[in-house]
Write a structure and sequence with these properties.
Strand content: 15-25%
Number of strands: 34
Strand order of the largest sheet: 3-2-5-6
Helix content: 10-25%
Number of helices: 17
Largest sheet: 4 strands, antiparallel
Distance between the termini: 121 Å
Length: 653
Amino acid sequence: MRKFFLPSLIAAMLSISCSDDSSNPGTLDVPEELDPSKGGVFATTLVGSVQGESFKNGTAVLFELDEKLVQTGTAVMGVPDTMSRYSVSTAEFTSPYAELVVSGKSVQPCSGREVDSKISVIVDLSKDSTVSLNLFTYFTSERLKELVKNGNMEIPKAWEQAEKEVHKLFALPEGETALEAFATSALFDRLAERTLAKSAPEWRSEFAAIFARGGEFTENDTLRVLGGVALYYDLDSSQLDWCSDIKEKVFEKADVSAYMHALWLSMLDAKECTAERQGEIHAVFNPRLPLTYVQESFPVYMCDSGAWRYAYGYERLNVTDTAGRVDGDYLRREGTSYVFDEVTGWRYANPSEDEYKSGCTKTREGIYLSAAVCMGGSWVSVPESTADTHGLECVADDSLVYGRISHAAYVCEGGSFYKVTEMDEKLGRYCTKKNLGDTAYVGVTPFLCRDSWEYIMPDSLDEWLKDSRDGNRYPIVRMGAYRWMGANLKYADSVASPNLAGNFWGSAFYSWTAAMDLPDDTDPATYEFTLPHRGICPEGWHMPTKAEWDSLFAFAEKFGPAGKMAYSLMGGYSWAGYEKVLNTFGFDIPASGRRELNGDFKNDGRGAYFWFVSQEENKLQYYYLWNSEAEALIGKSSGPDLGLNVRCVEDVE
């Protein structure tokens, strides 16, 4: 077996593996029972070492091989010393060929891990008395056996071919060269533990088997990862300082970098970066593989100005993803955004392009997109109506056009466009510049045109109802077709209104008979109302019917916040969970609760209850609002003595 040496590098690095090759074989003691003088055609003592790892309590067995490199059954055993050097006798061998197998617990360099390891090498005893076991000799031996056993090649020719293939795969220069001390202890040990998640002996055995079969080894995904790290070391040899076994040795990093350069070109089946290859992309890793630490850092490289360098994401896309692309295409991949420019190709997207998910290129200057226009390479926000009506003509005042983007309606006024709002459609009038200050009505309810239509709150109208009976004042709230009291009725004069006697509690709770101002013995089931029914309300006002309450609710639903009708009527801080209270119209309903039939007061802070006039058989009906409900609910009492609130509505002439 030929020996591999690298004169300029190995002298400084070989000791990394804690071995000495054949430079001092005489330091080993040959056991007396293995004395070569006792016979055998090829009687000698084979000495050498294992490079790249240190064995603890290992064994070294030398097996005799025949002309087909098959074991003959003759074997001798030796024991490696603590420096992984070995010595075995070949006294009984009659064949020149033998296989040395060293196995046991191995201490890996750099990491210091102890792993199970096994490594072997084939030797020609007629030529070699000293041989090293390392990555290269192991691969050569495995390939040699395959060529002889299954390829029917003669051993000398097979040996020559196996060595040539190993030289090519591992980029070993011509002549006597070896980098096992470096390659195993630094590059491959690091790869196995941090990239492949396997120990060096594990992946060494797996890939030696693949290599031996003569497969397309350079297409192996894991080997491409190994090549990627070699490229990493080539571009930045200072990264080798991570391993104390290397840092403590003296060697020229330039020599290491030169070897790493040749190694990754070989493993990745790459070429030197020449002027003819300017701009070429080299994909280091198979994109189907899950990303690893190394893959995330070094996925693709580009030939640039005579040297390979890391390729930016957009540079890769310019090689792999331009077919069918159009100007302004936006792409987000692996957390990074890109834009395609038909002039310059892919580039990184700027923040405005990320926001609008579209590219702003020179050829798209002035183009409107949603509420933005492309200006100077970025999307600049503009009013939505500006973008929507860009290119449309305003022919005549009050004419309608529809937006190019949103298809919303716009009304033409004085040469510019005004976007028709939902309130415009509800009120049947446009709140344009020429209409500023105008008032639109829904029934008796006014809306003022400012920047948009606004409901005019009761305090702005300053309208009040004064009850002539007791002097109490109530704000008036205009809700659709009716004017309502903006507070709960508080009238309590049981002398002037005898029907209140015994039927009014607290500050504003009325029984059904008190609210309807009927004698206490009135039978709700037989009583017939004449509408409007004044009840206990002030003169000119009456008790609301269900239809009038429904009209109020419909108004609040249409002109208030969507899906929050009841909350738009609730007011004050008396509600539990009052953050939902909106009081949109100033109707100001408090959560005063109610008086139960048994005299208890309940639901204060949670609900509000109001009697209404019903013509149904069960006339003891009421509406109530609940703090967790967005709609008004109907309740029915089992007796007239339930105490509820009263709101009155003005008579309509």
